[in-house]
């Protein structure tokens, strides 16, 4: 088995590191640590402190899981329902009244009225039709025709995600602002900001400290978040500021900053024998496959493998598409990976800066790999994440956990 720690140390060491810093943690259902390693620095400054499990990272799309949990807390309480379109019509009228694109790329833009209802279940599984404007040329043309720049990651809500749908609800899969909409739904139903709701209903429940939230100044203090970086042409690391603009909106699809140790506290609860955030029945719902075989959303998801492999390649890169589905909290692996062993039932997703989380309630293991390296799927990061995942499964197996 390759030594994950040694590889990370090599990648983050020296005058010209390949990656700025990495922190990785994994636990089992009994609360035991399977792996803990941190290597590298928190910024490009010569005197930057070392990265650690308490360093605050830019979560980007790893935020989505937390918004799913917030939504399911309200479902569990009976305040929201997964399949009640009236909730969307009442609380998200901006989304409810959007049209659906009918033109193909390169054609004059054409839209039609939405014919099918939108539900929270579709938002949590990216099957509502909503997509990020930067991911579809037709949405970019739509923005341009309105004299607007791309706003997916640099605009306030709801305007940043208020674009025509790519398909009728429930008839496809498209990665986009669905969890931002779900976060807005949580806010409007609860009367709290998403950050305040998550603090009360998720973070405090599992004992997270102040190093998680949407207000970067409060979360990271003077030290700030781990600097987000990318590779320059000569292989050196350069600054990659994120987000592109300082936003007031609490974006449920990608706005949280969080330390690795806080994120793992949440993941640990998802696999715990006696969970606190969600009941066992609701957790079973969280991890259940949502798309039936032969359905349009499942076919579209599997056709979008470049999207999900850039986020979860360490877990899904060697799997057949037949083993891919979607849960209410992320991508779902439904068959064992021969390279890992018992991995069916693993739910996972990632973030733009090569962060990766996974949780398998049946196997009782969960882990988080955190870094600040853009773009997602960057080669060296993907290699390290793959080594991390394999070592976690190996350690779990050696301890008789699998």
UniProtKB/TrEMBL annotation:
Gene3D superfamilies, per the entry: DD-peptidase/beta-lactamase superfamily
UniProt xrefs under SUPFAM superfamilies: beta-lactamase/transpeptidase-like
Keyword Hydrolase carried by entry: yes
Superkingdom per UniProt: Eukaryota
InterPro entries listed in its UniProt record: Beta-lactam-related, Beta-lactam/transpept-like, Diverse_Enzym_Activities
Pfam families per the UniProt record, alphabetical: Beta-lactamase
Domain Beta-lactamase-related: 16-379
Keywords: Hydrolase
GO molecular function ontology, one term from the record: hydrolase activity
Keyword match Hydrolase: yes
UniProt feature coiled coil, ranges: none
Family: Belongs to the class-A beta-lactamase family.
Name the UniProt record assigns to this protein: Beta-lactamase/transpeptidase-like protein
Organism, scientific name: Trematosphaeria pertusa
Classification of source organism: Eukaryota, Fungi, Dikarya, Ascomycota, Pezizomycotina
């Amino acid at each position: 088995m390759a030594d994950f720690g040694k590889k990370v140390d090599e990648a983050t060491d020296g005058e010209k590191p390949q990656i700025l810093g990495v922190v990785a943690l994994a636990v089992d259902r009994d609360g035991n640590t399977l792996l803990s390693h941190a290597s590298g620095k928190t910024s490009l400054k010569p005197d930057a402190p070392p990265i650690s499990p308490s360093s605050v990272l830019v979560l980007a799309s790893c935020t989505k899981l937390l918004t799913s949990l917030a939504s399911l807390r309200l479902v569990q309480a009976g305040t929201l329902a997964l399949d009640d379109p009236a909730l969307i019509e009442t609380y998200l009228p901006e989304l409810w009244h959007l049209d659906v694109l009918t033109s193909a790329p390169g054609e004059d833009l054409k839209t039609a009225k939405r014919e099918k209802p939108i539900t929270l279940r579709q938002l949590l599984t990216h099957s509502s039709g909503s997509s990020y404007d930067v991911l579809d040329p037709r949405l970019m043309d739509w923005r341009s025709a309105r004299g607007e720049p791309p706003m997916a990651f640099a605009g306030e809500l709801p305007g940043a995600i208020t674009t025509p749908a790519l398909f009728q609800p429930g008839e496809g899969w498209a990665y986009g602002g669905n969890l931002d909409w779900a976060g807005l739904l949580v806010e409007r139903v609860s009367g709290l900001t998403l950050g305040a709701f998550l603090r009360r209903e998720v973070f405090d429940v599992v004992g997270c400290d102040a190093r998680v939230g949407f207000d970067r100044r409060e979360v990271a203090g003077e030290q700030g978040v781990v600097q987000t970086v990318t590779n320059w042409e000569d292989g050196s690391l350069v600054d990659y500021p994120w987000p592109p603009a300082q936003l007031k909106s609490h974006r449920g699809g990608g706005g949280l900053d969080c330390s690795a140790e806080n994120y793992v506290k949440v993941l640990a609860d998802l696999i715990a024998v006696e969970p606190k955030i969600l009941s066992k029945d609701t957790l079973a719902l969280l991890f259940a496959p949502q798309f039936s075989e032969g359905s349009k959303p499942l076919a579209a998801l599997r056709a979008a493998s470049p999207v999900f492999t850039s986020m979860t390649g360490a877990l899904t890169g060697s799997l057949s598409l037949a083993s891919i589905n979607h849960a209410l909290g992320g991508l779902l692996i439904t068959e064992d990976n021969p390279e890992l062993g018992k991995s069916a039932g693993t739910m996972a997703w990632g973030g733009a800066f090569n962060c990766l989380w996974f949780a398998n309630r049946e196997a009782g293991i969960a882990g988080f790999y955190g870094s600040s390296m853009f773009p997602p799927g960057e080669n060296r990061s993907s290699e390290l994440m793959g080594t991390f995942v394999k070592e976690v499964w190996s350690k779990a197996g050696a301890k008789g956990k699998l």
